[in-house]
């Protein structure tokens, strides 16, 4: 009983392939892959870097775009896999930050993204609006705090700039995906036409004898008296 009631409490999300938000999310993921390739050009000499900072994010970009376009309407939960793989990429990336506090806070944020996105995609969380600030606030922080400071210091290299553009495209793509999500309306039960109660007719009485009324026995009696 508890399992059935839990399934009834869940909602199903989907995205429309032709919507502005869905197509924008797919385009941003593809741009992220392009920026990643440009920013990591000729940096694949280190096998560990090539696997975790080039191959893994590219796989996430392409897989997310495919899942969103091909399965977004039928099974939106498929997008959870590339998001979780992306969380792994960002956690590995955060290990290279200068501040350990920054690293810890980023790892907690990435874990929060994994939990909230998975729970929302599978309908455990019944609203998509928790995802909007979850993706919008880090995006704004990157632009107005980290990126502006890096630009003013003039220490940002071309490769690092392209890799940062790739990260920004991922965040913006996930934000677009949150806006694209829609709830599937529950199917209304088919109303059958009402059937009127059948009328019960009383059984017909057996027909009377063929003799005319009043001649059933009175006449023979009269003849005997005569």
Compact description:
This protein has eight helices and two strands; from the N terminus they run αβααααααβα. The protein is mainly α and about 230 residues long. The protein is elongated.
Question: Could you characterize the architecture of this molecule?
Answer:
The protein has helices spanning 2-9, 20-39, 47-71, 80-94, 100-121, 131-153, 158-180, 218-225, and strands spanning 13-14, 182-183. With 226 residues, it is mainly α. The protein has a two-stranded antiparallel sheet. Residues 222-226 have low confidence and may be disordered.
Summary tags:
single chain; 226 residues; mainly alpha; two-stranded antiparallel ribbon; 64% helix; elongated
Rg (CA only): 37 Å
Low-pLDDT parts are 222-226
Helix content: 55-70%
Strand order of the largest sheet: 1-2
Helix/strand-derived class?
mainly alpha
Number of strand elements: 2
Give the SSE string.
Answer: HEHHHHHHEH
Shape label: elongated
Taking the alpha carbons of the first and last residues, their distance comes to: 92 Å
Biggest beta-sheet profile? 2 strands, antiparallel
Give the overall average pLDDT: 86
Q: In DSSP terms, counting alpha (H) and pi (I) runs of 4 or more, how many helices? A: 8
Strand content: under 5%
């Amino acid at each position: 009983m508890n399992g059935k009631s839990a399934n009834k409490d869940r909602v199903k999300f989907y995205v429309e392939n032709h919507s502005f938000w869905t197509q924008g999310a797919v385009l941003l993921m593809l741009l992220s892959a392009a920026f990643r390739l440009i920013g990591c050009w000729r940096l694949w000499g280190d096998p560990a870097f090539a696997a975790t900072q080039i191959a893994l994010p590219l796989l996430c970009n392409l897989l997310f775009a495919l899942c969103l376009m091909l399965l977004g309407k039928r099974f939106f939960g498929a997008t959870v896999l590339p998001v979780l793989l992306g969380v792994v990429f960002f956690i590995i990336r955060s290990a290279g930050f200068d501040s350990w506090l920054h690293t810890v806070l980023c790892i907690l944020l990435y874990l929060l993204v994994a939990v909230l996105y998975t729970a929302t995609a599978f309908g455990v969380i019944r609203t998509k609006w928790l995802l909007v600030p979850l993706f919008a606030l880090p995006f704004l922080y990157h632009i107005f705090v980290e990126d502006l400071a890096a630009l003013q210091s003039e220490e940002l290299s071309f490769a690092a700039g392209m890799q940062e553009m790739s990260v920004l495209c991922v965040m913006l793509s996930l934000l677009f995906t949150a806006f694209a999500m829609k709830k599937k309306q529950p199917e209304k039960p088919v109303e059958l036409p009402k059937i009127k109660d059948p009328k019960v007719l009383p059984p017909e009485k057996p027909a009377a004898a063929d003799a005319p009324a009043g001649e059933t026995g009175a006449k023979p009696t009269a003849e005997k008296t005569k």
